[in-house]
Write a structure and sequence with these properties.
The protein is 17% helix and 32% strand. 28% of the residues are buried. InterPro entries: Cholesterol_7-desaturase, Rieske_2Fe-2S, Rieske_2Fe-2S_sf. It holds the Pfam family Rieske. This is Rieske 2Fe-2S domain-containing protein.
Amino acid sequence: MSATPPFFLRNLWYHAMPSRALKAGKLLAKTLLGEPVLFGRTAEGKAFALQDICPHRAIPLSCGWFDGNAVQCCYHGWKFDSAGHCTEIPSLMPDQQLDLNRFNVQAYSVQETQGNIWIYMPESDPAKAEPPRFEIPKIPGFEPQAQPNVTYTMRFPCFIDHAVVGLMDPAHSPYVHQAWWWRTSELHDEVKWFDPSPYGFTMRRHRIDHAGRLYGLIGGIPETEIIFYLPGLRTEETTTRKHRVVNLTTVTPISATETDVTFELYWDIPWGWLIKPLTIPLIKAFLGQDRDVVAKQQIGLKQDPVLRLIKDSDTPARWYYQLKNEYARSQAEKREFVTPVKSQQLRWRA
């Protein structure tokens, strides 16, 4: 595994939260990549994000008030609009003229689509900040106004790299995800083709020969295509002769020791509302199995061991580290990203 010290990728989009988590006229404080970020939604419904620190005395702005248009600090009443501009300093006398732009708060670029809020996390050094080089991922087959039918977030006690590698690991399912409603624990030979895709890689569309019982509910033998993107996004599009179901899984670093994993489902099944109440317990159990094994992994990682990867089942993990390091280098060198992934066939037992 990569000997590079752990680091967060900058100058790209991260999943912040499902849209429904941020109500109009409300604020929500979060920590992302170790930074305090204050999310809000104006009375008109527009989402925004600011650094959660007042530039006056460093009080978190989330401790203050929000009237649907401006955030007001609880210490001295300074006000900031949704773009981070300082709009009022109440203690100033009428004849004390100041350029309030000197006291603006850092604002983050935010996009909202398909029921999710995404935030662009630039370099902390403005001189190194770069504009987005690629768009946020789109859920195939669904309109921008689409909302996930199901969404669930679980916090993992690990650095983002270990959550991402676990997400793309093709060989752990028979041992970590042992459940009657999932695939059988019997090992099968897996042979899949992979191709490079923008800032990631794609497992080519293929038929699921050993599908679990749940797949029968969506109309027969399914085919699936799986795409991974930096910094830690995975879409799995499953189609049958009748329906389409897409899973979006996002991995968002909170700190060096905590990571949020959000699992969402989009479907075009007219009667999907009947099974919706069953999905959350199943997702919770599924993600919980991954979280539990990652928590156990942290015990061994405290000894800083050398992690030895094998071919072919660990090749996606190798690609992740190569993609991450190449993106960081391309940003530092201000050049175009060159993918290290080559089209190839991988074989493993799972």
